[in-house]
Amino acid sequence: MTSQSVEINSSENIDALQSRERxxxxxxxxxxxxxxxxxxxxxxxxxLNAVTKPWEQAIxxxxxxxxxxxxxxxxNQGVQILYExxxxxxxxxxxxxxxxxxxxxxxxxxxxxxxFTVDAHRNVADFDLLGLSFSTELxxxxxxxxxxxxNIPLHAVDxxxxxxxxxxxxxxxxxxxxxxxIDAAVLGDGEEAVLLISNIVKAWINAGRPGGREGVLLxxxxxxxxxxxxxxxxxxxxxxxxxxxxxxxxDVPSRxxxxxxxxxxxxxxxxxxxVPLAETVHExxxxxxxxxxxxxxxxxxxxxxxxxxxxxxITSIAEMVENGLEKTGFEEVGLLxxxxxxxxxxxxxxxxxxxxxxxxxxxxxxxxxxVDAFNVDLANELSRNGRRSxxxxxxxxxxxxxxxxxxxxxSEEDLIRTVTTAYxxxxxxxxxxxxxxxxxxxxxxxxxxxxxAKEVIRAGREASGRRDIKCTVSIGGFVPKPHTPxxxxxxxxxxxxxxRLHKLKDTIRNDKEFGKAIGxxxxxxxxxxxxxxxxxxxxxxxxxxxxxxxxxxRFDGWGEYFSFDRWMESAQYALEGTGVDVDxxxxxxxxxxxxxxxxxxxxxxxxxxxxxxWQDALAEVAVDDCRWTPCFDCGVCEQMDTExxxxxxxxTDLPMPSPRVSPVLAQ
Amino acid sequence: xxxxxxxxxxxxxxxxxxxxxxxxxxxxxxxxxxFQRALERALRRAGVPMAYSAGFSPHPKISYSNxxxxxxxxxxxxxxxxxxxxxxPTKLRDELDAALPEGLDVIEVIxxxxxxxxxxxxxxxxxxxxxxPAQEVARAVEALLGTSEVLVERMTKSGKRVFxxxxxxxxxxxxxxxxxxxxxxxxxxxxxxxxxxxxxxIVPSVRPDDVLTALKQVGTLExxxxxxxxxxxxxxxxxxxxxxxxxxDPDRVLV
Lengths: 667, 255
Prior knowledge:
The structure holds two protein chains of two kinds. Chain A has helices spanning 11-21, 27-31, 70-73, 77-87, 102-111, 140-149, 190-206, 212-222, 301-305, 314-328, 346-357, 373-382, 400-406, 412-424, 443-464, 494-509, 526-536, 541-550, 564-574, 582-586, 607-618, 636-640, and strands at residues 60-66, 92-98, 129-133, 164-168, 184-185, 232-236, 242-247, 256-257, 285-288, 290-291, 310-311, 332-336, 363-365, 390-396, 429-436, 470-477, 518-522, 601-602. By secondary structure, chain A is α/β, with parallel strands linked by helices. Among the domains of chain A are: 3-239, Rossmann fold, CATH 3.40.50; 284-386 and 604-667, Transcription Regulator spoIIAA. A five-stranded parallel sheet of chain A has the order 2-1-3-4-5. Chain A is globular. In chain B, a hairpin with a 2-residue loop joins β6 and β7. The longest helix of chain B has 14 residues, at 32-45. Chain B has helices spanning 32-45, 89-99, 117-120, 134-145, 175-178, 208-218, 249-254; strands at 15-23, 62-65, 73-83, 104-111, 123-130, 151-156, 159-164, 169-174, 193-200, 228-235, 237-238, 243-244. Chain B is elongated and about 60 Å long. Chain B folds into two domains: 15-112, Pseudouridine synthase I, catalytic domain, N-terminal subdomain (Alpha-Beta Plaits, 2-Layer Sandwich); 120-244, Alpha-Beta Plaits. By secondary structure, chain B is of the alpha+beta class. Chain B is built from seven helices and twelve strands. The chains are: A alpha/beta, B alpha+beta. At the A-B interface, α10 of A face α1 and α2 of B.
């Protein structure tokens, strides 16, 4: 302690004193535990392009958490973008933290090591803000583990000097199930949101924290785009449905709007992608080529909540690829978006990039492609030099009827034409992705998947003249999501899901001619039910999450940790006396008049339009993509004063970059 | 058409270079595979004109020898790379070091002018920091050196294996014995003894954790904290003095 410590009378001095003690590294305590656990490298940080700033240099300190294992969280684009955007601010500091596996969690509790960031190994509780990015609801219990390891009270109302806990990501579009654990939720694109929050928190700190914790939360709430759950009361009807959601503070808006970033070219992040030392699920660099999707697939929450389409220009994409490769040394680049081949300049882009990186051992890939022969041409272009092993398409529904219901406009002929092109070009394995449990689905719709797979093999054998071709069918269980036309739909119960999938399995297995060429991958229906409660739940679901976590729920997205029985027992206990149960949240169809838990959170979509689209689904009527056809009035552009931003920009040929002279050559 | 790898212009190897690097601090927790990925990416960032293998998925020509286990630091790790154009070893050292994360540090790069490098790595000098009273460590060391065989058990890829850890240990002494005027370790709040151990590379390899297991088995050693281990050197063994030579020496002679 310095002599200054005798004179503490202003709040400024208290801050200065606290910051000297806050932000110190806990690495010495952690280091002693690392030899005792598996894959310690994931906890040490030190990745290429990671940033550590002196604690005192910043006024606002963010801990950014991806609530899953490092191997999943480290490549996440959202966290990497916000990490960079925040650290570019001179008086803001951001560090990353990920979920610790149960082996380390047990040791941390035993030796009283707090939740830490991987960058400078600072105590998560020392930060001003803890931002969590929820790509999926299955990370909720991992949030509770992190809060408890950081000694942050689990419930927002019990917090005092603790970090402000902010949830973002797609799951935050219905944050009601975690409302009691978070201080704030942000909807939509994070770049501008984190800067806005930083500025408000900075001004509050500089002003001597007027009004305390509630003061800053009120400031955030009044913006109309930061949701503070504790400022809203939920009232219920006798039958268990929600009566209304109302603000309980003056001048807190009754609806919260989402953030929408326009002009992607102005935000070319990440500029210096992280290169993890530990092995991760995506061993490549990603460049986001556009945001949003207007294909209108009715099951797809991402497509609905990220509207409108905003493209990055071909020139800007090429610059990001070039710069990123130089800064990382990655050997693969993924051109990322919800449906990458839909970029208006994708053909020129693929050709230009393939030309540039030919002979450089750099491979390019397009995740998420649609069933379209044009996409096979693209894939051929991007794999000019490489092996043509597997190509993935997602028809999603087995029959034409169900594809009209979900608005996935793919005909059987299109699919056969596409796979014929693919097998003819040397691809050997076509992977097809489907869903089970879609609204109005019958056994017949699912059994059509087998027919389709057989036709694919037959076409492939003809096109290639070979017998060794394969078709892999992957099936995921459908979970209705908020802010989609299927938000009112009944989820299929897990027994019916399993029965349907078994019928499909038997049909494929019993086929003598094609059975062995078709691979079938699916999961049982139970995890989908838990995801269903968490997706469309209201505040009463918070007690289920807390009970399940206390009973040991962790890493619920991982089969080896997930326990359906634990969740069902916890639900029964937590919902006792509420009059509602698991089925009420999952397999019950909602009607138009019901107040949905997320109705006060505005994704830009007009609820009238969503309902009409739901009625169209039931009537098996499909709608087109508004990029190429007239507007369907989904509400986003009009309400948010935004518009679709698509090319082409007119640039078709990019200048080849000047060849780099290797700095290591002998003279 | 797709079952034959495409014809590529594969430039032949013009030069081989040997790299000595260190694994320090928190990055000692990186595994061999972690290092492999980091090195391949660093070589690309540094603009090193790597030679590639043929086939469907070409790999850069890199040979790794005898890497230290995960969690063990090292000042003496070695790899050999093949390049398609002549490189300046000093420039390559600087660029590669800058392209690797801090903690994976390139110490020296030398042009390979001799053969059979791996065979030269006959033994390692390990430094072990053991948090235990000096007397307790000394008793265990004495007991170990007084025995001719200590069977230890370890899980290997092929299952549980029992082997002798004693015969590979050629030298084991605490720093206080080797130093001229050793500080009194007994004065320290938590006693820590630094052991230097020379271990011959045999099959199955005797690793630092096997040495520690052996010490625990023969004595009553119970380290209070996880033992911190660093490989200080590996190379040709001089049997008489039990010392380790620089494996780059034969390459230096010819330059």
